[in-house]
Structure formats: C-alpha cells, structure tokens
Amino acid sequence: MKIATFNINNINRRLPNLLAWMRAAKPDVVALQELKASDGEFPAAAIEKAGYGAVWRGQKTWNGVAILARNAEPVLTRDQLPGDRDDHEARYIEAAVAGIIITSLYLPNGNPQPGPKFDYKLDWFARLKRHAKAFLKQDLPVVLAGDYNVAPTAIDIYPTRSWDKDALIQPKSRAAFASIVAQGWCDAIRELHPEERIYTFWDYQRNRWLRDAGLRLDHLLLSPQLAPRLVKAGVDRNIRGEDGASDHAPAWVVLK
To answer: 147 catalytic, yes or no?
Structure first.
C-alpha cells in the first residue's frame, strides 16, 4: 500500500501536474494540503475520472486539505483537529482507507516569530500531540501525513544561515515535532534514510530548486502498529522541476 502526502499549492492551478503524477506513481492514498479552493471549487469530477474517491475540506484563497483513495471511497472520520472550537481554518482532515486512519494535516507556518502566528503554530502542535496520543491509546493503525511546516533537524535543511529566524526551524518548532515522534511514532523517511539529506520543499525564490536549497517539511509518521510494515519511503522530487509545479514534492511510504 503506497501512501503519499503532497502540498499541491493550489489544486486547480496544479491539477494537470497532480493527475500526471498520480498516473505515473499510482499511490493508493494521497493526502493533499493547501488546496486554495473552497469546497465547491474542489475538482471532484476530474479526481473521480482519474480513479480516486475523495473527501475534502476546502477554504477559499488559502489552506484546504483532502484525502484521495485509488479505486475506493475514503470514510471521513474527522474534518477538524479537536481542541479549539474557535479555529475555523481548514487545516486537518482524517479518513479511514483499507483499515488505516490517514490524516492530511497542514500545520500553520508560524511567521513572523515571535508573535501571534507563532503562538498559533505551537498551540496547533500541542493539539495535534494530544490527538496523536489518543490514537496510540486506542492502538490504531494511523498515518499522520501532511505538511508540518517544520524541518526537524539540521540535516532537513540545506546548509545556510538565511533561515535562522524562520518559524520552520525554531527550537520550539523542532521540539514540538520531536515530542510527537517521542510518543512512539515512526518518522518513516528518516527511519529508512537516517543520514541522507532529503528535501520536500524548495522555495520559488532565489533559484532554490536549481541549487537544491530545500527543506524537509512534509512528513509521514506511522503508529507503532504500522511501523513494522514499512518497506519503502521516499520523495518524488522530480515533480518539483516540472512546468507549473508546486513548491513541494510528494513524499510517500510503502507498507506491506
């Protein structure tokens, strides 16, 4: 079973790229982030024609998350991260596919920091940590997939000082991510590639793609029940170099 996460950065603008990648890669499940489309603007017909069922939560202009399943209909289990009834941003959705709970999460960027946007990021992390702990208590097979907007360690960002003040690599951001992993989750890509510089995001500015000046922001965390089934993990980085590409590339795992 191949499960991928992909920050598509505007699903309607990148729809040809998305469909071409799905035809080639044949993922069984795709967690999408940053749809930048309202519920009614989601391209459901094109997704269905490609052979995928879908659940989604859109938001006009920004945010938006979805889960696609090949030759199947995802069973929606939640479309909002619990813990804050006043948070109406479309950043979280989860669904059951083939007996596995899959999330698509889009953590707040947190910039500028310090400030209210960074506080919101840390609060969102705390809420995710509580929800993740509940999954573990129930001993469920879960993949926490999505754009976490954090490069967890120094090896997850190209050698530079230009991002030192960015929320993506702040000690508190990294500690929040590490505290979730420490609950017992398996960071799939790092599990199989412990020392390799692997990136999932290359900013459009400053020629960063051609310089391979990337960051690993997109992660798939596996619950203890799923971790022993991990056989492959990687990033389809060439997708980032195509015309009209998102600034992210799909990250994926294969479970036996």
So the answer is: yes
Q: Which residues of the chain have pLDDT under 70?
A: none
Which residue, chain included where needed, has tokens 């930048």? 36
Q: Would you say 240 and 17 are in contact if contact means Cβ atoms under 8 Å apart?
A: no
Residue 149 in marked binding region: yes
Q: Is 7 annotated as a binding residue?
A: yes
Active-site residue identified among 52, 92, 147, 156 = 147
pLDDT digits (tens, 9 = 90+) for 196-248: 999 999 999 999 999 999 999 999 999 999 999 999 999 999 999 999 999 99
Would residue 123 show up in a list of annotated catalytic residues for this protein?
no
Q: Is 31 helix (H, G, I), strand (E, B) or coil?
A: strand
Instruction: Give me the residues paired with residue 69 across strands.
Output: 29, 53
| Assessment of whether the complete model's pTM goes beyond 0.90 | yes
Taken in order of first residue, the domains within the chain and their CATH numbers are 2-255 (3.60.10.10)
From 92, 106, 148, 199, the catalytic residue? 106
Structure tokens at 31: 């967690």
For the stretch 193-200, contacts whose Cβ atoms lie closer than 8 Å and that sit 24 or more positions apart, written own/partner, are 193/233, 193/234, 195/155, 197/155, 197/156, 197/158, 198/156, 198/234, 198/235, 199/156, 199/157, 199/158, 199/235, 199/237, 199/249, 200/235, 200/237, 200/248, 200/249, 200/251
Helices (H) and strands (E) in the chain, counts: 5, 12
Give the residue ranges of DSSP H helices in the chain: 15-25, 44-49, 116-137, 171-181, 188-192
Alpha-carbon dihedral sign for residues 229, 215, 28, 233: negative
Instruction: State yes or no: 164 annotated in a binding site.
Output: no
* 85: Cα separation from own chain's centroid: 23
Instruction: State residue 232's pLDDT score.
Output: 98
